[in-house]
Specification:
With 197 residues, the chain is an alpha+beta fold. The protein has helices at 4-15, 20-36, 56-64, 107-117, 123-141, 145-148, 192-195; strands spanning 46-50, 73-75, 82-87, 92-98, 149-154, 167-169, 176-178, 183-185, 188-190. Helix content is 39%, strand content 20%. The strands form 3 sheets. Strands 2-1-3-4-5 form a 5-stranded mixed β-sheet. It has a two-stranded antiparallel sheet with strand order 6-7. Strands 8-9 form a two-stranded antiparallel sheet. The longest helix is centred in the C-terminal third of the chain and has 19 residues, at 123-141.
């Protein structure tokens, strides 16, 4: 893997800022990929399954090379800061999950976050929030992964590789849609959007 600071920079460039959630994703991705002995996927060699759509998911995409477009980035909406990394070549997988009570924000940080989220913070309060947010992220980045996460070998649930298939026009809206996503309703082949109308 590339060096630590380069990984952080690439993740920040992609995500837009450094925050505790992104830092958790960086730590988890580096640990999981290292445990499997794999590096960033150029194609579909590594599959990543995240269990939240929070900030950490962006770091997983950047460092693992798993993306929606390649079909090797899977989102399970269960609200956990957890990620499973699967090596297709080795047929092995590990799952990392945030340990309870390992990442907390100070009371002033939490109070400022509430004001920022409600768009009720002054410019000075916003600046202080981001200072505290950045500071907490740096603390996370300097914490050993096994202090933050549990890691367990799991049976790989290997998703199929991404399909490339032709598109056909929906008989109702006329927009192109993947053939496998068309639904037959009566005599019409329609997209899932039109099937709900």
């Amino acid at each position: 893997m590339e060096n630590w600071q380069e990984d952080v920079k690439r993740c920040v460039d992609f995500h837009g800022h450094l925050c505790p959630g992104l830092a958790l994703g960086i730590v988890a991705a580096r640990a999981g990929l290292s445990e499997l002995g794999v590096s960033r996927a150029g194609d579909e060699e590594v599959v990543s399954c995240v269990e939240t759509n929070a900030c950490c998911a962006d770091a997983v995409q950047v460092l693992s090379g798993s993306t929606f477009g390649k079909g090797n980035f899977i989102f399970k909406d269960v609200g956990k800061i957890a990620v499973t990394f699967i090596s297709r070549e080795q047929d092995t997988a590990v799952r990392l999950c945030l340990k309870p009570d390992t990442v907390s924000l100070s009371a002033p940080h939490q109070a400022l976050m509430g004001k920022v989220m409600k768009e009720a913070a002054s410019e000075e309060e916003i600046a202080e929030f981001w200072r505290l947010h950045h500071q907490r992220a740096e603390e996370i980045l300097s914490t050993p992964w096994n202090t933050l996460f549990s890691m367990n070998a799991v049976s790989p649930s290997m998703p199929p590789k991404a399909k490339i298939e032709p598109s056909f026009l929906c008989d109702q809206c006329g927009e192109p849609v993947m053939a496998s996503r068309l639904q037959q309703i009566g005599s019409k082949a329609v997209c899932s959007t039109c099937s709900k109308d």
